[in-house]
Every structure is written in structure tokens, then in C-alpha cells.
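Revision sheet: C-alpha cells.
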Amino acid sequence: MAVEYNGGVVMAADSRTTTGAYIANRVADKLTPIHEKIYVCRSGSAADTQFIAENVKYWLDMHGVTLGELPLVKTASSLIQRLCYYNKNNFMAGMICAGWDPVDGGQVFSVPIGGVRVRQPFAVGGSGSTYIYGYCDANYHENMTLDECLEFVQNAVALAMARDGSSGGVIRTTVINEHGVERNMIPGNALPRFSEY
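Predicted:
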């Protein structure tokens, strides 16, 4: 998931990758950098989303060199959208593109399976997202501070991990703003708890 806050964006994801009922990787990093201050959160087919992220990273690197400045987040999300839309019968990729640029500040774009692109103040995706829409709608508010955003995403992802068998592991967070990128990890034994089960 990703959330805009006053000054940037906060992204968070679990670390479990599954192949059906089998856990293929319990410490995968689903938050992938595609430029200095632009990341994608990947869900769906790991192979498809890795392919898309690598291609968009290459194009953005070339675009940045050509322009001589940081590419825009909306440009990155548009490239992701084009790849997903024109390959919608081949790819199973849901992606959230988020980052900071000097023109529009922090931005979150959702590109779900099928290739539509929507800018949102927050976006959720992946199999665990169906369990947390109510929590997100009840707890999100505009003009959140960085600390409020971090608490919001950590609680939301922890709730998804508690309910969804295909979500789990650790929570990785990424804060992106004009000062750069800060990444953190919350281990499984330090996750927010909401009930004993």
C-alpha cells in the first residue's frame, strides 16, 4: 500500500510470496525502486511485476539522462500503465507507483490488473487488501503527518497479514520525500497486534 502525506509518500508491504498454497519466499522485497525517488509496490505474478519494474527502470534512467533532471512520478506511472494495458491478456500485475518529484510533490498512482491508472491519496493492492478496505476508509484522513502515515500503513498491513494466508513475514516500509528515501523493516515478532489468536 502507499499513502500521500504532507511532504511525500509512505509505502508498506508484507514479504510473503506464494505459489498457490506453497510459500515460495517468506522475505521477498515487494517495494522496488525504479528511480531515485520513485518506487513500485508489486502484487500479482512476481515474474511479471519484476519484468515491468526492470523495463520501466531502464526507460526512466534514459529519460532522466535525456532531460537532465528527475523524471516525474506521473511519467513513471504512465509507463507502467502502458505496459500493463497493452499486455493485459499476458500479465497478471497489480502495481502501485509512488514517489516524490519537484513539480507535484508526493504522489500515489494505482495501476491494478488490466492497466487502468488512477491517482489516489492512498492505494491498497494484493490479496490482503480485501481485508483492510474498512480499516483504511475508517482511519485515513487528509493531511496526515509522517508519523500518522507510518502508523496507518503498519497497522493496515499487519491486519492484512493476520487475516490473509497469502500475506505474512515482515513489514517493509519506505518513506520518500524531497530529502530522499528511508527504508525500514519490522520483524514478525514486533508487528502491531490487534487480538490474540
